[in-house]
Amino acid sequence: MKKEWMALAAAALLPGAAQAGTAADMQALADKNGCFACHGMQSKLVGPGFAEVAAKYKGDSQAAARLARKIREGGKGAWGPVPMPAHGNLGEADAKQLAEWVLSAG
Ligand code: HEC
Fold this sequence. Notes:
- This protein has helices spanning 2-12, 23-32, 50-56, 63-73, 92-103.
- α4 (63-73) packs across α5.
- It has one domain (24-103): Cytochrome c-like domain (Cytochrome Bc1 Complex, Chain D, domain 2, Orthogonal Bundle).
- By secondary structure, the chain is mostly helical.
- The chain binds heme C (HEC).
């Protein structure tokens, strides 16, 4: 009985990064990392609107991994000559979640 209780407690304490973030969590994460300085949810600011990104890569099963890398390393050329700066401080798991969240925007 005591053992079961310990296992339950351990499960409850697992880091949140292991779970998919809710939309509100993801919005907060994007906000915290300054994404909205250059991206609108719908429309272009400096970079493309996240809904535009989702539409462009619809059906592309490789897009999440590619975008996660681009968010961390930066890059240009997909939308124009203006580069996105690197976000090297962002962990791989966070970058992947952000990429998947962007792809689900729309
Ligand atoms: C200083 C401005 C700036 C910031 C801050 C920024 N971006 Fe970008 N982002 C851009 C620009 C410019 C592009 C277009 C790059 C290109 O044409 O390839 C872009 C492109 C993208 C793309 C599409 C990439 C592609 O290859 O199609 C995604 C996804 C993205 N940004 C997500 C994010 C996320 C998530 C954050 C926050 C962690 C973020 N951006 C922060 C400017 C920014």
